[in-house]
């Protein structure tokens, strides 16, 4: 049970980080001042970011941020959480900057690309160009090539440029958001935990509840396919409302459902006959 609780806390914390990723992306696009519509994050972007977050965390469990011992100084988990939190926020801010820069570049290319009808007819006519002008232009191009400094092309370029650095304002906003919400007393974390609990609980009921059948005492229940909402071209068939926003966590939810379903089936096989005995549960009339 303790392991299942830790898994649920990790999934809740991961959901909060992805929610922060959405909010930082929206904030960056809103503050850019561009008149073009911002690039919306897709499920593929969120799943890619989820993989990067797991790589940053390594063996550290994100759900540790909800521990009551986080307020104690000198705790190694507190120091590790602070380091992991800063690394995760930097990665989120970097990806947000890349998304914003990619959207601006695509919009600029759309605006600056001239239509084919605007090309003058004289430029496509070969008869208007004289041999002398051709020779002069080739000579000037060759001379400019020979005058260029050989050392300028051989200088190595820095792998990190100013354009790839995250926005300090975005980093500060992410740190402030994580400090306020990713802790035990947060109302937002409690709400997201309850939403995850409801989704997992309903899925466990569907997959493991022993419905009665006249022949063998149980009726088979179809397994819950949480990846259906992630399939391409399935926009006309969205998942249940309770799964809204949790689609990128389908793998984590499926793992929780499978583990809890096995535990529930073991418990029901052992204690169901006792629960069904008449008089086990006192009637409301008495």
UniProtKB/TrEMBL annotation:
Pfam families the UniProt entry points to: Tcp11
Species: Coprinellus micaceus
Family: Belongs to the TCP11 family.
Chain segments carrying region Disordered: 101-168
Low complexity composition-biased segments: 110-166
The protein's name: Uncharacterized protein
Lineage, broadest ranks: Eukaryota, Fungi, Dikarya, Basidiomycota, Agaricomycotina
